[in-house]
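Question (not urgent): is this output format expected?
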Amino acid sequence: MGGPKYQGLGGGSPAEQQPFRKVSVLPLVFLIFYEVSGGPFGVEDSVQAAGPFLALLGFLLFPLIWSVPEALITAEMGTMFPENGGYVVWVSSALGPFWGFQQGWMKWLSGVIDNALYPVLFLDYLKSSIPAVAGGGAARSISVLALTAALTYLNYRGLTIVGGVAVFLGVFSILPFAVMGLLSIPRLEPSRWLAPPPDLRSGVDWNLYLNTLFWNLNYWDSISTLAGEVQEPKRTLPRALFFALILVVLAYFFPLLAGTGAVPLDRELWTDGYFSEVAKIIGGAWLAWWVQAAAALSNMGMFVAEMSSDSFQLLGMAERGMLPEFFARRSPYGAPLVGILFSASGVALLSWLSFQEIIAAENFLYCFGMIMEFVAFVKLRVEQPAASRPYKVPLGTTGCVLMLLPPTVLICVVLALSSLKVMVVSLAAVFFGFLLHPFLKLAERRRWATFSSSSDLPALDGAPPREHDDIADDDEEALVTAH
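Got this back:
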């Protein structure tokens, strides 16, 4: 297969290594689709946790509470800072390089944890056809590692290839649910949708319900980490986010509507992978096989999209001097070579976790990162109102704060419902980031590694230049010395 070639493998400025082709609107829509969703695979647990009524209601209301505000912030900030690194750049510009690094650490780790889920889901959808991969033995472990290696190689071939594959996989993954929806019409019983929800105290697993909604409707900001690879990002990014938002909501709601309305309810059966059984009941074995194939390919799409986002984030951080310069090294096809290898290693190490543990852990870390994004967004609105914003959320500062109140409350609820195990592990990871940044600054001073000289934050258009925070660097070196 061919792909866009870069002029070099690293060591030059970003301008010297631009690809011949950048990502346009259609591939960007499907890259966002896969970074956020990938289709209804994985939403089955919401029915098990809360029943059909609350599951359907959640996938209508949750996008308004969470997805729309996050997508709007991504559109404004992504066009304000159209460069690789995305939210790391936003937080650095608003809160300083230390907190920008913490943002990058938590969101990268959250993304890697999230990516560890897709090989698990892939095998879960094949367990009825290939029982050997359903257990926890050597066959399953080898399958996870082989799949991770194959998809990592696809990322190595470059973002243009990944974007084209995302379009193909997206269409293929959505089609069987469109067919299932049509075939379900004669079997639909609306009373199944409107049945009284279970007792809200004892009959709803709120932790599983909210984590499932949250996991399936977040990560809208992930596309910002590769904004430097987008064709005319100041115009393309907002349009792609708008179309992707519509696509994601429809891809969740209508399959749930068909599945819960056409099949008698047994909440215990609604777990990850159950849509293939629903398809078999509605259309027969051929439709079940199609759904299984769509699920497998969808998980591949989510994996490569997430890995692209994670690896370009590391590349953007290296270009700003937050990570050693070798993280900016690219493959001959323009992909972040070292970033891909680091992300793939993290996925392989975390693939032993269960579905629920993966969701809870990545949601916990993701919440911390989103709080900093909200703070950075509002602070830049207040402190740099004259800065160029090619797309601007059509609300004043007060309106933006009010828009962010519901998702902030939701973040607090998700954090409060986390298990002790998830909380301890996640907080330990956060604390490690507090030590890692000053250690890297010390490594830069002692010349243990080469860092880019572009770590000073550039001024925004219409905003005063920002000075490098030498005092913060001195404090960081003292912290490393103390430890």
